[in-house]
Design a protein that fits this description.
Layout lengths: L6 H16 L5 E6 L4 E7 L4 E7 L3 H4 L8 H17 L6 E3 L8 H12 L4
Parallel strand pairs: 1-4
Antiparallel strand pairs: 1-2, 2-3
Helix pairs in contact: 3-4
Length: 120
């Protein structure tokens, strides 16, 4: 049977394959972006555990943000995920942009995480 991976899945796996080469045991900051929200997770691939997570669906952010689908919301999520990672003792990560281009909301999230103190 023919492999039925979509182009999005292929792109994401290509990015993760390159990250495995350079991660040197660091956790991965994974980003998922939908049309209405943005989500971020810090994942320890060695143990398969999620260390920290943040999204625009959280109650304290919903009242503060105009919408979950703009660069301002993404920057707030970046700062929040960095703060939560610092509490767990994580300061260095590798950035997994998934199938998305490093532009717009994904870039805003990365800049917010750097501003919050994460190194990548």
């Amino acid at each position: 049977m023919k492999n039925t991976m979509t182009t999005t899945q292929r792109r994401a796996s290509r990015v993760r394959r390159e990250l495995r080469k350079v991660n040197s045991g660091r956790p991965r900051l994974s980003v998922y972006r939908s049309s209405k929200n943005i989500y971020a997770q810090i994942i320890d691939d060695l143990s398969g555990q999620t260390v920290a997570a943040a999204s625009t669906l959280e109650k304290e952010l919903k009242g503060k943000l105009k919408t979950g689908a703009d660069t301002a919301a993404a920057a707030e999520i970046g700062k929040l995920i960095a703060e939560r990672a610092k509490k767990k003792g994580v300061s260095k990560v590798v950035f997994d942009r998934g199938p998305y281009i490093f532009h717009g909301r994904v870039k805003a999230l990365a800049d917010g995480a750097r501003e919050g103190g994460l190194e990548f």
